Every structure is written in C-alpha cells, then in structure tokens.
Amino acid sequence: MNFDPSWGQAGQSIQQFWQEQWSKSLQTLQQMQSGAPMGLSAMPGLGAAPNPWASIMEAMQSAMPQVAAGSAQTVQFDAPKLQGLQREYLQSVQSLADAKQVQDLLAKDKRFAKPEWSANPVASMAAANYLLGSRMLNGMAEAVQGDEKTRNRVRFAVEQWVAAMAPSNFLALNADALNKVVETKGESLAQGIANLLADMRQGHVSMTDESLFTVGKNVATTEGAVVFENELFQLIEYKPLTAKVFEKPFLMVPPCINKFYILDLQPDNSVIRYAVSQGHRTFVVSWRNPDESQAHKSWDDYIEDGVLKAVSTVQDICEAPQINVLGFCVGGTMLSTAMAVLAARHAREHGQPQAAKPRSRAAAAKTGSKTAAAKVEAHVFPVASMTLLTTLIDFRDTGILDIFIDENMVRLREMQMGKGGLMKGQDMASTFSFLRPNDLVWNYVVGNYLKGETPPPFDLLYWNSDSTNLPGPFYAWYLRNLYLENNLIKPGVLTVCGEKIDMSQLKMPVYIYGSREDHIVPVGAAYASSQVLSGERRFVMGASGHIAGVINPPAKNKRSHWLREDGQFPEAFNDWLVEATEYPGSWWTDWSAWLGSHAGKQIVAPKSYGRARAYEAIEDAPGRYVLSKA
C-alpha cells in the first residue's frame, strides 16, 4: 500500500468518484438534516457539532475538496428504508444503557472483541456508538435509489470512510493499544513510531516482516534457468523432477501487473513445482518490471513480443509442434488475446483449426495416450490446450473494480499516459488494498503503529507488497477496450497485432478456474469464458478468494472445489452450480489429470536447459528481472 495519504495516481481515481458521487448526495443529505437520527455526533472524529449531519457532510467534503459548492445534484433515497433505519437506530441507541448489550455488540466485531475494550468505559461507548453509526451509514448507502454503478460507488465510499473512522484507528480511543503502552512502559509506542518511519521510507505499509524473505532464497526457489530474454520478459525453464516428461511442454503466463513467483512461493505451495513434479517440461514467463525505457509499450507489444514470442520460443527449444499453456488473471486475458491472434494467422495460412470433441474426465484420461500417439498433422495448431485461472474474457461483470471505470476516468488515463508514461505499481497496490480496507489497510496501521507489532511472516503478503509498474499505453488500452467497452468478446471489433480477432474461434480444449469469493474476478465472470470459447471446456470452482483459492496445494487438504460431469454449460453460472458436486480438497489434482490427458506421450527428460547453442542458460532462476523493484 502506498503510504502517501493521497494514494498517488490510484488515490486520484478513488477521490474522483468520491467527488462525483458525494457531490450528488450532499444536497439530499442537507435537506434531511432536520430529521437525522441523534447520536452520530458521538462517532470519533466527528466532534460534537450541534447537528451531526453537518459533521458527516464536512467529513465527506474533506475527502473531496475540489467539489464546487453549486455542483451538487440530488440522489434519491428510499424513504421507507430511511425511516426504518432511523427507528432501528433509535432503538439501538437505547440499548447502550445496558452494559451487557454493549459487550455483546463489541464482541461481534474483531476490532473491539478483546476484553480491554469492554473494560474501558470511554473506549467501549466510542466503539458502540461507532458501530451503530456505521450501520446507519451503510444502511443509507443501501437506501440510495439509482443505477447499480452509482449504488456501488456510494457503498464503496461509505465503506472507506467508515473503515477510516473506527475508534481502533485512534490511539486515544484504542483500549487495547493503550493497555499495551502501559504494559510495555512505552516501548510499544516507541516501536510503533519506528515502524511508521520505516514504512514511510519504503513507501508502503508493511503487511509482513519483509526482512525474512529474499527472492531466490526462500521464495521463488524452484530450480531452473533463464533460457531466453528480451526487453519485456525472461523465459525460465525448470529442471525436471521426473525421469520422463510429457512430450508437449507447458508454458505459464502470469499477470504482468504482478511478479511471477505467486506461482512459486514455497516448495510446498508452488504451482510451478507441482507441474514439474507431475512430469511437465515447464516454462514460465517472468515479466520485466518496466521503467521509463518501456513507458511507451502497448498491449500489442506485450502480445506479440511477450506472449506469442514465449509460445514460439518454447516450441523452438523443445522442437514441439504443440505446447500446453496456462494464464493467470491478467495473464490469462493476455494469453487468450494472443491465442485469438494466433488463430487468425493460422486460419489465414492453414485454415481453421478443428475443435476437439467434448470428453468426460474419465474419457479424457483413457484416451489421452492414444491421442498423444496419433500422428501430428502437418499444420497442427501450436497450442494443444489452455488453462485459465481467475481470468476475465467477458468484462460485463468486473466486480467491485467496476466502480473505478467510466468514460471520464478512462479518458483521463488516456490523456495522462495513453502516449507514454508509467502506471506506478505502488498506486495499483493502493487501489487493491483499499478494496478491503479493514483487512489490508487499517489492520496493519493499528498493529504496526499503535501497538508497535511486527506482522508475522507470510509469503503471500510479501509477494503482494512486491509491486510492478505498467506501461501507460498498455494500461490505457486495457481500460478502454476491455473494462469499459468489453470489446474482447465482440467478433472482429478489435485489431491486435494486425489481426482482427474473434474469441469464438478458439477451439482448443480449455480448463477454466474461478474462485468462489473472488472480488477481483467474480466467479460468475470467470465462468462467462465458457460462453465465449468454442472448444472442449471444463470449469471448476474453488473455495476462497482470488489468490488463496488458486494457491491451494493438495497436500494441505484444505477447502473444496465444485465440478459437474455432464458436459453442460448453461448461460448463467448459478444454473451450472445447481448441478455441480462439491469435492473436498484442492482442485489441482483434477486439473493435473486433465492437463496430462492433453500432454502427449512420455519421453526421456532433458539433461540440460534450453537447446544446444541456440538457447543456452543465461542465468539461474528466478533471474534478474524479478528482482527489479517498482
């Protein structure tokens, strides 16, 4: 998270929609002042103004100082809902006279659940009033009448403000932190100040003890070597862990907005190591963290000189007519786009590639070796199968990120960096952190600074803090053509790398994964890819969120996954889910069986990296590109 309170460029996006949406709602709030529920003035940070609504509006306006006084427009509220909220609030305020009810109220929120809060009368009443007031404000956000985008923006703005104003964020009101100051004789406060200064120097709030992790030493440790590089990426080949490997090599394309080692955190949760252990000759793209010298790079550059170059290089190294590919998040979107470009070129040169006949899981496993043993056609499509993990192809449902995207915002980004420039990694990290403000922002502010604690070591959060930049032209094109206009699913609308693309022409077998609690790529949006692609499809839903759902090794025996074996893909995700069966544990084993069925026969594993003099090892994995800091 960017420590700067303005949140850099990403913070400007947040401020922009605050300005737009709250300027519309302020007039309505002003009209409602006389009937506002009492007691909100007790919320910390609001002060004791005679009219609490005035304080709320002052706080909102402080978050959007550029709003012109005469620009406010009325937002309509559901009057019966507001009346119900007021009645509920007044009843709840009366319950604060009962100490037991206050204690029960605090116990339901982990920020105030410790006994220190209930034992401190000032802190407990501040927290109780805050919880009632925040419930009222969230209820008001739900009572807004308007289109769904406006409602989501209002909800998000309220969530940000309510999260920031929690009494737990203020040392004078945080009973737990104050108790620790007394117990440690001030050492916790001194350490908190030291933590604050250290985070200011590094430019983001620490989510884990970053001193305990070193890329290449205890994260990203799977043995391998860089066998190719250009100005956009390094290609890493990993050392086989089996005597034989599948004849069709396997290429992973991670998102270029993050570093590749999310797929290689520790040996026991590494997707890369798992693939190697399953007998796949595995290659991974390690994107360069762009600096000013790459600030002009476009989406086309990343598709042509990135993804497509990686595909052809793996083919060349392995002398393989076909390879299997995997894309994760934005990497999956880029990979899908590259496949559409490849399909257009293949169709022009050799005719349309044939779609594989749909098969059940059992049939795929039985016939895989026979398929692999079949004679390779002279002009076979270069990619045998594609795996998409938490990937958007259809951008109709982009979850909470939709609140940031509209014509004005996209046009602003095009003006700022459409011709060149960098979207800073820390600014993007800020945006993603504030999607879950209590868990990913204020939790660490309280722990690091008010309590003087060092967050525990966690490889995933270390990776999360190791952000990357994006070239401005790439970013601006991505926002307009995908997030705003959803052009990727429109046949012939987009021209990429000189080719008019049509995603429906992708006929290779595809394994599609979505996470049930994903707030970046909603599971229904991941499933929507099954309605766009034309080949054999398999969809699996995993438990948990965007990252934790993917990084779920079988040995842990955690979480569940859902499948259906009838080969049906109804239009609506919920209709698919009705007939799905829950299976305990990781989805990796199902994917491994599926991937193996498309990987061909077993051959002797290579004894060296690359191929002779054409592709010699440049340096050991994880390579130097991944070490570059944003």
Protein architecture, described:
42% of the residues lie in helices and 12% in strands. It has helices at 8-31, 52-62, 79-95, 99-107, 115-119, 121-142, 148-164, 175-183, 187-202, 271-277, 299-318, 330-350, 361-373, 407-417, 425-433, 437-450, 459-465, 472-484, 523-527, 573-578, 588-596; strands at 76-77, 144-145, 224-229, 233-238, 244-246, 250-253, 282-287, 323-328, 383-389, 422-423, 470-471, 495-496, 499-500, 510-515, 537-542, 560-563, 581-584, 602-604, 619-620. The strands form five sheets. It has an eleven-stranded mixed β-sheet with strand order 17-16-15-14-9-8-6-7-4-3-19, with helices on both faces. Strand 3 (224-229) and strand 4 form a beta hairpin. The radius of gyration is 27 Å and the shape is globular.
The strand count comes to 19
Strand order of the largest sheet: 17-16-15-14-9-8-6-7-4-3-19
User: Measured on Cα atoms, how large is the radius of gyration?
Assistant: 27 Å
State the low-pLDDT regions, or none: 1-73, 360-377
Structural class: alpha/beta
Count of alpha and pi helical runs = 21
- Largest sheet descriptor: 11 strands, mixed
Mean pLDDT rating:
84
> In percent, how helical is the residue content?
40-55%
Our measurement of the CA-to-CA distance between the termini, rounded to an integer number of angstroms, reads 12 Å
| Overall geometric form | globular
Structure characteristics:
42% helix, alpha/beta, disordered N terminus, 630 residues, 21 helices, eleven-stranded mixed beta sheet, two-stranded antiparallel sheet, 19 strands
